[in-house]
């Protein structure tokens, strides 16, 4: 088995691997590394596209008055920005990590269902083509918010509902297939000696995430189908005039939507829990409590959905129940943060880029957690709900949370993927520019929300003008900073300092026992995981 | 180097908050007791989060500074401790309980809607608010009054923006100080949300359902808010302005409104006989069009297809009949964003706007429409589509009861029997409009819960069901459709269901007596 640079996407001459050449290699591939690469590139392209939409939003909001876009187009921008970032950027990026790393972390030769793996990726570009194509149709793109509340998305929609529903169905099918693949792989293909409680935390968190996906993606499929029949086939699930209830839409949507939030953050916990011990040169503190905390968060995520709906006119008992359950999530999440800090405590730390992103993750995600705790308090939520305070909250957990963990993971495993070290100066520039600009972008949103600026508005009262200007400037800077990452990755693929099999001296795990770049096929004979330390 | 970067970053957080000390950074404290309690909770939560943050981030920064490899530190080997894990599970739970107790107290008082002095129904529609005072004849729409020239700056030009840019409306919601005002909030189309930060009131307006909220405002003044739930194109352009007046000023305001209503009615009656010139109609029509129609159909008449069709050259506004055009403007078009303006505009204004639409933008039909034409085109129907629905129900009910056997009017039923039977009748004859919950679909189909009809005088209630409403043509006469026993049962049901609990029992004989 050769260990030469075979992962390089521009070279196709390795006889041992029977790779097809050109585009066919990527279309027909059943190799988990190729599919992982496809997912990661797709996610990055979507990130840039969704980011471009956000730039347009920030251009319009730079100063009061409508300068560039019509209010209806503004709503299309916010809607598609949300959909692309959630379903097109964050989720596929984590699936990319799962494809690349889970087989290597558990000592398996590939994913259990490689052809399904190919299919689950290749339907995604079609889903997003449909969604994006609606911008160029007469109806325009979906304009009812990424949460698509009925009846704005049914009776009062602009005609884009059918495209939107079809696109979401395809995304759901893809996610479910990806999740099944992960579960089957983890349950059946662990190397001898790789017991459940020895699995790296990223494997654990994605294992639990996969169950969440299987549980809630069908709910999403159901709710969009009800939307479709309400709009085009005369049913009245969400129309009071026919005996339905528009609030029922929100209950079903958020029964999907809240676990979805954890689908986007649990894998991030896994990545950060892998990186911090590596650069603190100290084992993860409280491995088993981390596993239990992840499982409790996953369980609690099913009984808190209505905290998105405190103002819909719920009975007092409902409001109290969902407030208490939501506050309870702070406990396992707190355990995780404390464990990360305890891992750093009395370690021997160095601050390479993956560690910098991980530390930024812990601090900024925790700030997002604090605002989440404040939002959980029902009486105060009446003031925060649907303002920029909420926008600040979920961007702190999704951008400085999920996205930062994706960057941390990418820098951590880039040497393994490409066989080269990333460019030191450029990657530092990427980190510091992102860190500073992201806070100029999102921190003032807290003030805007508290002062009373509602979300999803194309124009605002004059007292919000100053902060919006800062937010826009931060937004442009953050958007541009991501292009540095593109340069870093391309340079890293093309060349750079050769990476050793294990470039980080504190790193643990089976993926570091194979060469860098990882051979096209790894662990064709299972490794012996008996002597891997119990975590 | 890295340490300096971090401290620079921390400084970055502090500097803007000092520079903008005159701007609002924190939550609105508000004027009501509730809003101040909410503010207190917010500060309490913020302090707790800050304290936790200082401890956790402090420990982290400490180890970042001192436990680094460059200082030659050898890593420790500890990696678990059940004691510590239990400790940092229990401490947060205790803190959370400390936060949950005051939050629960505030929430319970926020949700206590009892003993209100004044009830106001708030109805959201795309993109304005409608206020209706219970126990008064006062109702009106409240629309953004910022001139379009101030916010439509696409051509790089714009008028100077006023002080209350986007937060000003033509008619304020007026309420008195120190009275418990109950707001009943609903919607005509999509979901809106009525939010006034100074009262800490934010309630969604759901179509077909009614939500409750309340406020006691201790200080006169003007309080501004906005719609808080995405409701389509002009979600950002439907503000809320509440004017709180002293009791005397409020009473004076009520009198003024009643006078205005009387004079408007007189003007409406006069307009039916008056005939306006085409120039007058066009002028009034353009003003009305700009205020009510231009947001969707655009000042150019080109609309925003496909949701908002063009009027320029359209069939409705050119070749179609005038009566159909009036009908669409007056009653709206079901299943689309086109709402009915019959209640918002006077007949004269509708006549003017129809004239305008049929002659502007090169439509040039030459038609002129007078208020009397509007009256004759729409006579007898406040809502054509609603009336059709009612007729259908009445037909079905008529079919169902023709086969009914002759009834024994002297029979006396128990409350239980009447309730069971009444519920069945209600579910066939009344439920389509008044809904299974009794909450109706206001404003066309009023709520029966606690309504003056279902809880007031029994004879008025019988009269309403037997003979229909004199004011609201949607309420049909059921005297010929239902048997007297059925009517007795359904009235008993309505007076005792949904918490109406009047205890009244109405027998078939009572119906027969009232018919004489």
Descriptive account of the structure:
The complex is a heterodimer of chains A (535) and B (516). Chain A is mainly alpha-helical and 535 residues long. Chain A has 16 helices and no strands. By secondary structure, chain B is α+β, with helices and mostly antiparallel strands. Chain B folds into four domains: 26-110, Orthogonal Bundle (Helix Hairpins); 118-145 and 165-267, Immunoglobulin-like; 274-386, Cytochrome Bc1 Complex, Chain D, domain 2, CATH 1.10.760.10; 405-514, Cytochrome Bc1 Complex, Chain D, domain 2, CATH 1.10.760. Chain B has 17 helices and ten strands. In chain B, helix 2 (33-66) runs antiparallel to helix 3. The longest helix of chain B is centred in the N-terminal third of the chain and has 34 residues, at 33-66. Residues 9-21, 381-392 and 397-404 of chain B have low confidence and may be disordered. Chains A and B meet through helix 3, helix 10, helix 11, helix 12 and helix 13 of A and helix 1, helix 2, helix 3, strand 7 and strand 9 of B.
Task: Summarize it.
With 535 residues, chain A is mostly helical. Helices cover 65% and strands 0% of the residues of chain A.
Offer a few descriptive terms:
heterodimer, A: 535 residues, mainly alpha, 16 helices, 65% helix, B: 516 residues, alpha+beta, Helix Hairpins, Immunoglobulin-like, Cytochrome Bc1 Complex, Chain D, domain 2, 4 domains, five-stranded mixed sheet, 10 strands, 46% helix, globular
Topology readout:
The complex is a heterodimer of chains A (535) and B (516).
Chain A: H1 22-28, H2 32-60, H3 71-106, H4 114-122, H5 124-133, H6 161-188, H7 201-232, H8 246-263, H9 266-280, H10 287-300, H11 316-344, H12 353-376, H13 378-384, H14 388-418, H15 424-451, H16 465-494
Helix pairs in contact in A: 2-3, 2-4, 2-16, 3-6, 3-14, 4-6, 5-6, 6-7, 7-8, 7-9, 7-10, 9-11, 9-12, 9-14, 10-11, 11-12, 12-14, 12-15, 14-15, 15-16
Chain B: H1 2-19, H2 33-66, H3 82-110, E1 118-125, E2 128-133, E3 139-142, H4 148-151, E4 173-176, E5 180-187, E6 192-196, E7 201-205, E8 211-216, E9 221-227, E10 239-245, H5 247-273, H6 278-292, H7 294-297, H8 322-331, H9 347-359, H10 371-378, H11 384-402, H12 415-429, H13 431-434, H14 452-455, H15 458-467, H16 484-496, H17 508-515
Parallel strand pairs in B: 1-5, 4-10
Antiparallel strand pairs in B: 1-2, 2-3, 5-8, 6-7, 6-9, 9-10
């Amino acid at each position: 088995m050769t260990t030469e640079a075979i992962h390089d996407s521009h070279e196709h001459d390795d006889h041992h691997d029977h790779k097809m050449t050109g585009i066919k290699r990527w279309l027909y591939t059943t190799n988990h590394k190729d599919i992982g690469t496809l997912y990661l590139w797709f996610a990055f392209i979507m990130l840039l596209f969704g980011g471009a939409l956000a730039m347009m939003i920030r251009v319009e909001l730079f100063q009061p008055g409508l300068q560039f876009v019509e209010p209806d187009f503004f709503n299309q921008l916010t809607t598609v920005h949300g959909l692309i970032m959630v379903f097109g950027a964050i989720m596929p990026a984590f699936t990319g990590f799962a494809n690349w790393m889970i087989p290597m972390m558990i000592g398996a030769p590939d994913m259990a269902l490689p052809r399904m793996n190919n299919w689950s990726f290749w339907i995604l570009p079609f889903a997003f083509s449909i969604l994006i194509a609606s911008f160029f149709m007469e109806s325009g793109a979906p304009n009812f918010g990424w949460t698509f509340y009925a009846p704005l998305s049914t009776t009062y929609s602009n005609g884009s509902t059918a495209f939107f529903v079809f696109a979401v169905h395809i995304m759901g099918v893809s996610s479910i297939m990806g999740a099944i693949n992960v579960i089957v792989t983890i349950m059946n293909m662990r190397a001898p000696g790789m017991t459940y409680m020895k699995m790296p935390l990223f494997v654990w968190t994605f294992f639990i995430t996969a169950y969440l996906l299987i549980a809630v993606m069908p709910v999403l499929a159901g709710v969009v189908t009800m939307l479709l029949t309400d709009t085009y086939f005369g049913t009245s699930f969400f129309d009071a005039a026919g005996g339905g209830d528009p609030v029922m839409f929100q209950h079903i949507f958020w029964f999907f939507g809240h676990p979805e939030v954890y689908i986007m953050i649990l894998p991030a916990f896994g990545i950060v829990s892998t990186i911090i011990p590596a650069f603190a040169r100290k084992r993860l503190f409280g491995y088993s409590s981390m596993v239990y905390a992840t499982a409790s968060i996953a369980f609690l995520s099913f009984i808190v959905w209505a905290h998105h709906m405190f103002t819909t006119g719920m009975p007092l008992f409902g409001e109290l129940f969902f407030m208490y359950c939501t506050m309870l999530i702070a406990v396992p999440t707190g355990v995780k943060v404390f464990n990360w800090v305890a891992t750093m405590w009395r370690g021997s730390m160095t601050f390479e880029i993956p560690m910098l992103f991980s530390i930024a993750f812990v601090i900024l995600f925790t700030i997002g957690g604090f605002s989440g705790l404040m939002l959980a308090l029902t009486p105060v939520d009446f003031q925060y709900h649907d303002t920029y305070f909420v926008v600040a909250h979920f961007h702190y957990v999704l951008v400085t949370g999920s996205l930062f963990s994706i960057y941390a993971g990418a820098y951590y495993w880039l040497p393994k993927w490409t066989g080269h070290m990333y460019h030191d100066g450029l990657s530092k520039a990427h980190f510091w520019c992102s860190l500073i600009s992201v806070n100029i972008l999102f921190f003032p949103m807290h003030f805007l929300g508290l002062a009373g600026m509602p979300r999803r508005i194309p124009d605002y009262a004059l007292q919000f003008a100053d902060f919006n200007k800062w937010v826009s400037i931060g937004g442009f800077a953050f958007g541009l900073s991501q292009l540095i990452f593109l340069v870093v990755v391309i340079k890293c693929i093309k060349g750079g300092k050769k990476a050793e099999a294990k470039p980080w001296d504190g790193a643990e795990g089976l993926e570091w026992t194979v060469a860098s770049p990882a051979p096209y096929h790894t662990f064709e004979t299972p490794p012996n995981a008996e002597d891997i330390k119990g975590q | 180097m890295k340490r300096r970067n971090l401290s620079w970053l921390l400084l970055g957080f502090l500097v803007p908050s000092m520079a903008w000390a005159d701007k609002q950074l924190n939550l609105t404290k508000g004027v009501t007791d509730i809003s101040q309690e909410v503010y207190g909770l917010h500060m309490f939560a913020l302090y707790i989060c800050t304290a936790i943050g200082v401890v956790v981030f402090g420990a982290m920064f400490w180890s970042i500074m001192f436990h680094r490899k460059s200082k030659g530190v050898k890593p420790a080997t500890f990696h678990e401790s059940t004691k510590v894990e239990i400790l940092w599970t229990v401490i947060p739970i205790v803190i959370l309980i400390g936060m949950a107790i005051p939050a629960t107290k505030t929430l319970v008082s926020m949700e206590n809607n009892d003993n209100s002095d004044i009830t106001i129904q708030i109805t959201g529609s795309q993109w304005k608010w409608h206020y209706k005072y219970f126990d008064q004849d006062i109702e009106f729409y409240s629309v953004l009054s910022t001139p379009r020239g101030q916010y439509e700056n696409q051509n790089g030009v714009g008028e100077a923006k006023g002080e209350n840019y986007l937060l000003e409306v033509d008619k304020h919601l007026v309420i008195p100080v120190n009275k418990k005002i109950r707001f009943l909030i609903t919607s005509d189309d999509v979901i809106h949300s009525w939010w006034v930060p100074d009262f800490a009131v934010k309630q969604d307006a759901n179509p077909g359902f009614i939500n409750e909220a309340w406020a006691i405002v201790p200080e006169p003044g003007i309080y501004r808010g906005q719609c808080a739930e995405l409701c389509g194109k002009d979600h950002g352009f439907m503000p809320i302005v509440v004017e709180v007046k002293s009791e005397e000023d409020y009473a004076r305001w009520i009198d003024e409104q009643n006078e205005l209503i009387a004079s408007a009615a007189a003007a409406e009656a006069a307009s039916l006989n008056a005939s306006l010139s085409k120039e007058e109609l066009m002028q009034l029509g353009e003003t009305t069009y700009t205020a009510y129609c231009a947001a969707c159909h655009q000042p150019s008449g080109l609309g925003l297809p496909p949701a908002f069709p063009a009027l320029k050259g359209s069939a409705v506004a050119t070749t179609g009949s005038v009566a159909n055009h009036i009908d669409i403007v007056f009653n709206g078009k079901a299943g689309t964003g086109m709402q009915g303006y019959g209640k918002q505009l006077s007949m004269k204004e509708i006549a003017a706007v129809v004239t305008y639409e049929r002659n502007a933008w090169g439509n040039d039909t030459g038609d002129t429409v007078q208020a009397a034409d509007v009256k004759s085109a729409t006579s007898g129907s406040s809502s054509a589509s609603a009336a059709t629905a009612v007729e259908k129900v009445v037909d079905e009910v008529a079919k169902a009861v023709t086969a009914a056997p002759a009834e024994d009017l002297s029979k006396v039923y128990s409350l239980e029997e009447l309730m069971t039977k009444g519920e069945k009748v209600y579910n066939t004859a009344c439920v389509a409009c008044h809904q299974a919950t009794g909450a109706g679909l206001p404003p066309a189909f009023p709520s029966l819960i606690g309504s003056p009809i279902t809880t007031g005088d029994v004879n008025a209630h019988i009269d309403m069901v037997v003979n229909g409403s004199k004011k609201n043509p949607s309420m049909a006469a059921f005297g010929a459709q239902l048997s007297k026993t059925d009517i007795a049962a359904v009235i008993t049901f309505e007076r005792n269901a949904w918490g109406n609990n009047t205890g009244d029992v109405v027998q078939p004989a009572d119906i027969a007596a009232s018919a004489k």
